[in-house]
Amino acid sequence: MRESLLFLFFTIWFSGFVAAKPPNFVLIFTDDQGYQDIGCFGSPLIKTPNLDAMAAQGRRFTSFYSANSVCSPSRAALMTGCYPTRVGIPGVLFPGHKTGLNPDEITIAEILKARGYATACIGKWHLGHKPKFLPTRHGFDSYLGIPYSNDMTIDPEMNLAADIVLREGFTADRISKEKPKRNLVPLMRDEKVIEYPCDQKTLTNRYTKEAVEFIGRNADKPFFLYLPHTMPHIPLFASGQFRGKSARGLYGDTIEEIDWSVGEILKALSTHGLDGNTMVVYTSDNGPWKLSNGRGGSALPLRGFKFQTYEGGMRVPCIMRWPGKIPAGTHCNDIAATIDLLPTFAGLAGAKVPGDRVIDGHDIWALISGQQEAVSPHDMYYYYRGRSLESARKGKWKLRRTGKKQGGVELYDLEGDISETKNLANENDAVVKEMLEQMEAFHAALVKSQRPAGKL
């Protein structure tokens, strides 16, 4: 009798433990991928069967926003849940910079690591390449990737691994003495350069292999996998398996290889029995380059490109999947953003959002899980360009300040005019006045609570 009671007790206890295991998070973040550049978002030429299947098994977000239209600020926002200007990263960081994301900031990885999560960053970081700013100093157990954009250079002061792979005739002495060349970038593991120049044709494949191995190693405990792909930022590269295969040229090749990567990651989750306890998020850091000869992506039907606060610069494709938790084959058109992921992940992991600082994002689990009465928590969403608050969205209305002395305000009804073709400012004075006042008040408050970037 005593043995039976003990068995029953431990069975109930173990079942409760299993049920209480926090969810895993896989966050896939592409670079400069346009709103239309996925089959289920309307791409006429790029084939993305794995992403389309992910959408069929999950939920598409059609009014999902990055917090900036260029790389470093959009990533600062993602990691901190804040508008990038608030955390001192309003513009792009370069290899010559000695600044980065302040070590005092609290990232998604740090919040989850404190809850016992294994964490890995695999891909493009771009929040400072000096050791004190790298992912390993911001809550990630490990890092593999190019620390900034793939069209940049090496910093001759970077730490080189003892077993570094040197290509194209380079030596450690050449790296330290020669003027760095554009498009020749370092591949890092943790805080040291392990390959220079990096063979970019192999990147998506290598990132994927690393991600699959990380999932396998951590299948028995909660994990956070952050996979910010280097592609399709220019210069474009694809492996031999995908190069020349897409009807959309080399740009399409890179997206189709990323789609393959998504399939491999979903396969790994299934193999390890993790589908039912893993939330996968796929989105982009900002809109596509405006480039000729098919080198850039498409934001259609949105107006604008990277570097701009038109919708095409900051509204990005987003798919979320968690079988049994996120309703399959659905979509959400409410305003949501990358800054919402930190508070949402924290809530699902049973962690608290930092209470000693302003966090701009909101927990949007109600939207993600398709709760019937859920609405966007963003009364107004703000589009920064550098340190300037250039645009904002409030419900269906989008206001944009052009900087021109006369007629310097544009107002669009995004519900009826998603392509921002008809300026309705002159016909809606009250809406313009209200939105401008709200924007000014928000920006003034942000400046007062602004936090500095990290410095050496």
Please provide a written account of the structure.
This protein has 456 residues and is of the alpha/beta class. The relative contact order is 0.18. The protein has an eleven-stranded mixed sheet with strand order 7-9-8-6-5-10-1-11-12-2-13. Mean pLDDT is 94; it is low at 1-19. The chain contains eleven helices and 19 strands. It folds into three domains: 22-150 and 203-368, 3-Layer(aba) Sandwich (Alkaline Phosphatase, subunit A); 151-197, no CATH class; 381-455, Arylsulfatase, C-terminal domain, CATH 3.30.1120.10.
First-residue to last-residue Cα separation: 66 Å
Taking the sheet with the most strands, its summary is: 11 strands, mixed
Count of discrete domains: 3
Q: Please give the count of helices.
A: 11
Strand content: 15-25%
Low-confidence stretches: 1-19
What would you say the CATH architecture of the largest domain is?
3-Layer(aba) Sandwich
Total strand count, please? 19
Apparent shape: globular
CATH topology of the largest domain: Alkaline Phosphatase, subunit A
